């Protein structure tokens, strides 16, 4: 009998090849051909699953996003139940700060994609900001829950605080990648911010 093709697995394998190539050579050096060679498949197969380089890059970002969310969920599952909002926000901070190879590559690729999209119309067409927007909504929902149960002061705007926390962790992540901050220092800064927000203190 002919072997059944797992298209999801094939797509994931190609995305993994792009991630390895970009982590080694930089996202600017990635081509459809180099990804095919890294994946050990034909260029035609890569083009079958991904019509453009921009589409392939966006798919790889979504692939990494899924991994990051899985890791955050694993951190949440390890917390006592029911976990307080502070603990869940600290778990987000722990995942958002790049302190291992997988999280470092995710942050590096997303930042590189954003920079390239500023000058490459083909990349700018990809909805790559949809990932951060989804994450921001999740944080806003968590902060809204915290305000409802009294963990977050009533005068705080959950949506605004979610935007601020996401922007802070993105910036801290870049500082970690450039070596300006250690992961421990970046995590301490983000946790300090979370604690001040939940304790109702003004931003420093």
UniProtKB/TrEMBL annotation:
Origin species: Nocardiopsis suaedae
DNA-binding stretch(es), residue numbering of this chain: 31-50
PROSITE patterns membership: HTH_TETR_2 (PS50977)
Gene3D superfamilies, A to Z: Tetracycline Repressor, domain 2
One Pfam match: TetR_N
Annotated protein name in UniProt: TetR/AcrR family transcriptional regulator
Superkingdom field: Bacteria
Keywords, comma-separated and alphabetical: DNA-binding, Repressor, Transcription, Transcription regulation
Domain HTH tetR-type per the UniProt entry, residue ranges: 8-68
